[in-house]
Write a structure and sequence with these properties.
Number of helices: 9
Largest sheet: 8 strands, mixed
CATH class of the largest domain: Alpha Beta
Oligomer: single chain
Radius of gyration: 22 Å
Low-confidence stretches: none
Shape: globular
CATH architecture of the largest domain: 3-Layer(bba) Sandwich
CATH superfamily of the largest domain: FAD/NAD(P)-binding domain
Helix content: 25-40%
Distance between the termini: 20 Å
CATH topology of the largest domain: FAD/NAD(P)-binding domain
Length: 429
């Protein structure tokens, strides 16, 4: 049986951040990185926008401003991002303030999906050159932290410490690992919303601020804005109950031709209480309902139809005021009002109306609402050591799937934080 000082499950930002931090601190460490996908996965593959300002991406239950700032400096020092210029946003911030809305001012970098793929290729090659052993297309079946044994579909290996960082897509897998290792956790928070697609000239703020972050009343916010060469994409979620799809957005780098469109998510955070305590189960139910109404696909509806209380149809989806084609054409035109919970829809619609006052134009009749966009990254493990995200001896959890981050840079920071804890634990043996 092969032995590794550290095994890392998941090659997204949390896993990569931990790997580089471990190798920099202890160059001779034996390190395995395992991912079920045939490629390095995670947020770096999807648009690759990075935020370098507190509190974006940092759950405040696990981070304070000082600690986040310390790790953000380390992340920025390693990645060396080109920070984008932000200008001309004062008028939008003033309008927002008058409506009880907050516009965050964030230091951002954007590589685009193609730039992210190039970065991943370089990072994985760098890890291999430093002696790490990436293994892609290998599925972890079980983790026994007490015995220090990890079993995959290809082998069995032993480890001194293991980091489980599978991201949002590995939400259910992470729960299985926690149950098997006696780690208590709660799963009661989920973000539910729509992705909004429109002509870029109807959301002109993106010309001056690539990913504007608006915070609205009733725990609604904008999230993951894409422009220049932007597209809406479909994401697959799979667990023991079956398959369902959520929508997301991405954009190519500035090197690619622009298509004149922008998209962003409008999300409402929901904290569930008894008797239904599982955000994952609730998300799955909402996703399944949308798939039922969409014939196995997400649903899309023009704002013009939504305001008139009628469904969108394929035949009436283009022409006249409907002056651009949807970039996710596989979606089913329909009535999202039949699928989105009424309380959620009211909060989202009120936020959209406020945003249309701040940036007039987003509620043009042609604007498309895609549903569902659901973020299921809110596992909240009970850590034995919160400083290092250690859930049990030799077992560490980090990244969006573990609820320690919400985005690329914070996930990378949480991986570095775990690496510091692992180095301390290994140093005691």
């Amino acid at each position: 049986m092969e032995h590794y000082d550290v095994a890392i499950i998941g090659t997204g930002p949390a896993g990569l951040g931990a790997a580089f931090a471990l190798l920099e601190a202890r160059p001779g460490i034996r390190l395995a990185l395992i991912d079920r996908n045939q490629y390095s996965s995670g947020g770096l593959r999807n648009d690759c926008k990075m935020n370098f300002s507190w509190p974006v991406g940092f759950p405040e239950d696990d981070w304070d401003q000082s600690l986040a700032g310390h790790y953000l400096e380390r992340v920025e020092s390693f990645l060396q991002p080109a920070i984008m210029e932000r200008k001309g946003v004062a008028v939008y911030a003033h309008r927002a303030e008058r409506l009880g809305v907050r516009l965050l001012e964030i230091r951002q970098a954007h590589l685009g999906t193609d730039g992210g793929l190039a970065l991943i290729k370089r990072l994985v090659a760098d890890l291999s050159a430093r002696g790490a052993e990436p293994s892609l297309g290998e599925t972890v079946l079980s983790v026994d932290a007490a015995r220090g044994i990890l079993t995959t579909d290809k082998r069995e290996l032993s480890f001194g410490a293991v980091l489980v960082a599978p991201g949002r897509a590995g939400f259910s897998f992470l729960q299985d690992v926690m149950r098997a290792n006696g780690v208590p956790f709660v799963d009661n928070v989920v973000d539910v919303g729509v992705r909004i697609e429109l002509r870029e000239d109807r959301y002109p703020i993106v010309k001056d601020y690539y990913d504007p972050k608006f915070l609205f009343p009733k725990k609604v916010r904008t999230f993951c804005t894409n422009s220049r060469s932007a597209h809406v994409v479909q994401e697959k979620y799979e667990d023991e109950a079956g398959v369902w799809y959520s929508v997301n957005g991405h954009a190519w780098s500035a090197d690619r031709p622009a298509n004149g469109l922008a998209n962003f998510a409008m999300l409402k955070t929901i904290a569930l209480t008894e008797p239904l305590a599982s955000g994952q189960a609730y998300a799955r139910a909402l996703g399944a309902q949308a798939m039922l109404l969409g014939g196995g696909h997400p649903i899309m509806q023009r704002v013009g139809d939504f305001r008139l209380g009628r469904r969108s149809t394929r035949e009436a989806f283009t022409g006249d005021l409907y002056d651009f084609a949807p970039t996710l054409a596989s979606c089913s035109p329909g009535d999202i009002g039949l699928a989105v919970p009424a309380k959620v829809m009211r909060a989202l619609w009120n936020a959209m109306k406020s945003l249309d006052t701040i940036v007039p134009g987003i509620l043009h009749p042609s604007t498309i609402l895609y549903y569902p966009e659901i973020k299921t990254y809110a596992n909240k493990p009970v850590f034995q050591d919160t400083a290092s995200f250690r859930a049990a001896p030799r077992l560490y959890l980090a990244g969006d799937g573990a609820g320690t981050s919400r985005g690329i840079t914070s996930a990378w920071a949480s991986g570095m934080r775990v690496a510091d804890g692992i180095l301390e634990e290994l140093g005691q043996h």
